[in-house]
């Protein structure tokens, strides 16, 4: 298969067009300082949700520790950029965060993913809490409960956009690859996959580590954009927030995670003036979706350029016929 | 296809129109004041109390004819006790709603999250209860030009309590039981340790989720000490008091303003709250006429007595009003300038001036509780 074909060019066009539209909106002032924060929150949520979707939607494992992995990424990048306030420092921070998170995920993943069932959920729930408590108690490095402030503002929105595209690219390509297919086979039926010679532990662990690593990227960008991080930002609630996006969009649909992150981001903006009432409206919206569309907004459907091309070809064929 | 395109364009222009309407300047005859509080989420108790204080103050000011003959109009948002939301809302207030000043948020983390956007937009922010020492300072130690507060900072409380222990209690040996998971308690602990000249016999720490403190209390039971220093919020402090008194530890207990909540008595049981001293911004027993009027009005409005948080927020609004009057106009620049030079402001939490680091120079009250009742208050000057 050639690297340059209609599909890849199509994706490139989509990514660049998205960037240009946003850039235009920012320069003309349609996206003001306030909407830029919303945009960044949405982009970071996409990174987090797509990563979690790889674990939950494609390998069928349930992780409740996304906030913990995010915290590792955020603190690593935060500490490193405080010493090296340059882009090199930021990339170094992201890299270190990804490596550290992968190691932690490996340590948690290997014993729990050898088992069948929801053991990963319990283990990750505990690990996320442990990570947070360790951060609280490592006073000299992390400044304890008061958190880090004054982290250099390096990850401007175009950088976050690039990372969002890269994360989607990574996860989407992984699911289409041979290990990805094996991972999906495990989700569909673990025993059948095992009997076909799929090393279930290995592929579950790979998916889990990849998902955790993207959480670290999201955390690092969060730290660098918002300049302030505290252990209290990475509680169980944060994991649930990401989980909601995944479930809302459709478990197993990357497009769904993207759409859900955007929708929930806008919902938050429009509900902000309603004060405390918005939490009720937000909850009702979620309950409504779960009743009328239990598989999430998009189920497991995906938007693909190749699908779009096929649609066009069919239409033009019909037109000619 | 054309229809979808049309719909898309329509939606986009609507969106743009919405943004445009938001950034229009406020009505000339009113003063736009912003407020952001933690009204939902884990620290909503503080945010809700402060929001009530703000609304009462605005109501009073408007009924008295407003400031400079203009009524105050409040735009308020809930930060969900979430710091990202605090950044977002601070930006919204400062750049979209064009408020002249922002009152809130209640916690130090949220104030830090709001600092960058309000500094860029050059809108002053007055936090009623953000007490971390570094809130009004930049990384390099300069003053944050747009952040002010009406509460004293953590270090001042720790120092006041240490002095009180040495001078008034004459206590030589201390035990510290501190909360290591809140920056508030850590700040109080550090300031106390730096000032206290007696011996610190033992230091024990717990985190916010703990409910059983018997291990810590058993450890200190056989130690010889004169008092327990307990920097913590009322949730844990109440339980510790109960468990300590039941174990027979009857030494005096000293704490910070985190004690000033009815829940402390409910958790500990009034019979266990004796020989308890805590520093406070505000006392319900204060006989000052202004304070009593505030308590009466607040109780009439909300059917519950005000606490220190609502009092601090109430003062924050009056502080802004004072600044507008001093500066002669309701613009962010004039208010910031006027806030910096406020002296002898007479509020319900005491008379204070704003110092060069934007902190109020005010005295603290040390309240003594016996059987759950305030039996004496002592004022400690800075």
TrEMBL record, chain A:
<dbReference type="GO" id="GO:0005886">
    <property type="term" value="C:plasma membrane"/>
</dbReference>
<keyword id="KW-1133">Transmembrane helix</keyword>
<feature type="transmembrane region" description="Helical">
    <location>
        <begin position="37"/>
        <end position="56"/>
    </location>
</feature>
<feature type="transmembrane region" description="Helical">
    <location>
        <begin position="63"/>
        <end position="84"/>
    </location>
</feature>
<feature type="transmembrane region" description="Helical">
    <location>
        <begin position="119"/>
        <end position="138"/>
    </location>
</feature>
<keyword id="KW-0472">Membrane</keyword>
<feature type="transmembrane region" description="Helical">
    <location>
        <begin position="205"/>
        <end position="223"/>
    </location>
</feature>
<feature type="transmembrane region" description="Helical">
    <location>
        <begin position="158"/>
        <end position="175"/>
    </location>
</feature>
<feature type="transmembrane region" description="Helical">
    <location>
        <begin position="9"/>
        <end position="31"/>
    </location>
</feature>
<keyword id="KW-0812">Transmembrane</keyword>
<keyword id="KW-1003">Cell membrane</keyword>
<dbReference type="InterPro" id="IPR043428">
    <property type="entry name" value="LivM-like"/>
</dbReference>
<dbReference type="Pfam" id="PF02653">
    <property type="entry name" value="BPD_transp_2"/>
</dbReference>
<feature type="transmembrane region" description="Helical">
    <location>
        <begin position="243"/>
        <end position="267"/>
    </location>
</feature>
<protein>
    <submittedName>
        <fullName>Amino acid/amide ABC transporter membrane protein 2, HAAT family</fullName>
    </submittedName>
</protein>
<feature type="transmembrane region" description="Helical">
    <location>
        <begin position="279"/>
        <end position="299"/>
    </location>
</feature>
<feature type="transmembrane region" description="Helical">
    <location>
        <begin position="90"/>
        <end position="112"/>
    </location>
</feature>
<dbReference type="GO" id="GO:0015658">
    <property type="term" value="F:branched-chain amino acid transmembrane transporter activity"/>
</dbReference>
<dbReference type="InterPro" id="IPR001851">
    <property type="entry name" value="ABC_transp_permease"/>
</dbReference>
TrEMBL record, chain B:
<dbReference type="InterPro" id="IPR000709">
    <property type="entry name" value="Leu_Ile_Val-bd"/>
</dbReference>
<feature type="signal peptide">
    <location>
        <begin position="1"/>
        <end position="21"/>
    </location>
</feature>
<protein>
    <submittedName>
        <fullName>Branched-chain amino acid transport system substrate-binding protein</fullName>
    </submittedName>
</protein>
<dbReference type="InterPro" id="IPR051010">
    <property type="entry name" value="BCAA_transport"/>
</dbReference>
<dbReference type="InterPro" id="IPR028081">
    <property type="entry name" value="Leu-bd"/>
</dbReference>
<comment type="similarity">
    <text>Belongs to the leucine-binding protein family.</text>
</comment>
<feature type="domain" description="Leucine-binding protein">
    <location>
        <begin position="30"/>
        <end position="372"/>
    </location>
</feature>
<dbReference type="GO" id="GO:0006865">
    <property type="term" value="P:amino acid transport"/>
</dbReference>
<keyword id="KW-0029">Amino-acid transport</keyword>
<dbReference type="Pfam" id="PF13458">
    <property type="entry name" value="Peripla_BP_6"/>
</dbReference>
<keyword id="KW-0732">Signal</keyword>
<keyword id="KW-0813">Transport</keyword>
<dbReference type="InterPro" id="IPR028082">
    <property type="entry name" value="Peripla_BP_I"/>
</dbReference>
């Amino acid at each position: 298969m050639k690297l340059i074909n209609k599909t890849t060019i199509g994706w490139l066009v989509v990514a660049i067009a998205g960037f240009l539209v946003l850039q235009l909106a920012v320069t003309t002032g349609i996206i003001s300082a306030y909407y830029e924060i919303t945009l960044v929150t949405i982009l970071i949520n996409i990174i987090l949700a797509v990563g979690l979707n790889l674990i939950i939607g494609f390998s069928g494992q349930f992780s409740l520790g996304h906030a913990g992995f995010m915290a590792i990424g955020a603190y690593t990048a935060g500490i490193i950029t405080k010493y090296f306030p340059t882009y090199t420092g930021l990339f170094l921070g992201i890299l270190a965060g990804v490596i550290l998170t992968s190691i932690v995920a490996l340590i948690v993943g290997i014993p729990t993913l050898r088992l069948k069932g929801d053991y990963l959920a319990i283990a990750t729930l505990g690990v996320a809490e442990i990570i947070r408590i360790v951060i609280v108690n490592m006073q000299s490095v992390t400044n304890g409960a008061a958190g880090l402030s004054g982290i250099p503002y390096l990850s401007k929105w175009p950088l976050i956009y690039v990372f969002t595209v890269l994360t989607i690219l990574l996860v989407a390509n992984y699911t289409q690859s041979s290990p990805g297919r094996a991972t999906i086979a495990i989700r569909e039926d673990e025993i059948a996959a095992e009997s076909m010679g799929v090393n279930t532990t290995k592929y579950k662990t790979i998916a889990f580590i990849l998902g955790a690593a993207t959480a670290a990227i999201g955390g690092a960008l969060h730290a660098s954009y918002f300049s302030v991080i505290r252990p209290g930002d990475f509680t169980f609630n944060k994991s649930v927030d990401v989980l909601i996006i995944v479930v809302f969009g459709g478990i197993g649909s990357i497009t769904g995670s993207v759409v859900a992150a955007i929708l929930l981001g806008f919902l938050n903006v429009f509900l902000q003036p309603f004060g405390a009432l918005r939490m009720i409206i937000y909850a009702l919206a979620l309950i409504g979706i779960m009743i009328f569309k239990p598989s999430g907004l998009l189920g497991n459907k995906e938007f693909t350029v190749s699908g779009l091309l096929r649609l066009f070809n069919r239409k033009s064929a019909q037109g000619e016929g | 296809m054309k229809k979808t395109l049309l719909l898309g364009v329509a939606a986009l222009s609507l969106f743009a129109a919405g943004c445009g309407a938001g950034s229009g300047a406020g009505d000339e005859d009113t003063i736009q004041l912003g407020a952001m509080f933690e009204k939902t989420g884990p620290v909503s108790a503080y945010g809700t109390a402060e929001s009530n204080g703000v609304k009462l103050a605005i109501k009073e000011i408007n009924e008295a004819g407003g400031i400079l003959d203009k009524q105050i109009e409040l735009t308020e948002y809930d930060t969900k006790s979430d710091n990202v939301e605090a950044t977002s809302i601070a930006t919204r207030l400062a750049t979209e709603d064009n408020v002249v000043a922002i009152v809130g948020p209640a916690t130090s983390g949220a104030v830090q999250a709001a600092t960058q956007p309000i500094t860029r937009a050059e809108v002053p922010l007055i936090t009623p209860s953000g007490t971390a020492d570094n809130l009004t300072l930049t990384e390099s130690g300069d003053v944050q030009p747009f952040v002010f507060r009406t509460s004293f900072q953590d270090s001042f409380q720790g120092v006041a309590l240490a002095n009180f222990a040495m001078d008034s209690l004459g206590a030589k040996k201390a035990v510290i039981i501190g909360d290591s998971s809140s920056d508030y308690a850590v700040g109080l602990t550090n300031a106390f340790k730096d000032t206290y000249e007696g011996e610190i016999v033992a230091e024990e720490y717990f985190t916010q989720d703990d409910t059983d403190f018997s291990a810590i209390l058993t450890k200190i039971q056989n130690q010889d000490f004169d008092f327990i220093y307990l920097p913590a919020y009322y949730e844990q402090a109440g339980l510790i008091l109960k468990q300590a008194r039941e174990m027979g530890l009857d030494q005096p207990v000293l704490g910070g303003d985190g004690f000033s909540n009815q829940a402390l008595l409910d958790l500990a049981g009034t019979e266990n709250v004796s020989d308890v001293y805590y520093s406070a911004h505000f006392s319900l027993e204060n006989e000052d006429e202004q304070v009593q009027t505030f308590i009466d009005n607040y109780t009439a409005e909300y059917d519950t007595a005000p606490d220190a948080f609502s009092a601090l927020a109430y003062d924050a609004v009056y502080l802004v009003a004072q600044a507008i009057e001093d500066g002669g106009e309701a613009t962010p620049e004039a208010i910031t300038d006027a806030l910096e030079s406020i002296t002898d402001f007479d509020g319900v939490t005491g008379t204070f001036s704003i110092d060069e680091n934007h902190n109020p120079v005010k005295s603290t009250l040390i309240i003594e509780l016996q059987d759950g009742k305030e039996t004496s208050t002592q004022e400690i000057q800075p």
